[in-house]
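haha ok so turns out i had the wrong file open the whole time. this is the CORRECT one, sorry everyone. sequence first:
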Amino acid sequence: MIRCFGYDTGWTGLRTCHCAAGGCHRTFTGIGAFDKHRQDGRCQDLTSVGLVPVTDALDRLRSAR
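then structure:
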């Protein structure tokens, strides 16, 4: 398991990316999502760049059953 200094939760995965910039500490499933999130050297709001937080995606899947 990989951990970021000062971050309580860890992650695994060969393509997992973690943003340690300025208190962001979001973890992404791949480099494409990470790159969408980091534009012009700054962290972007997930929904404004077309990303869906995992917790929202899981809630949507559960409600679709």
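The mean pLDDT is 83.
again sry for the mixup
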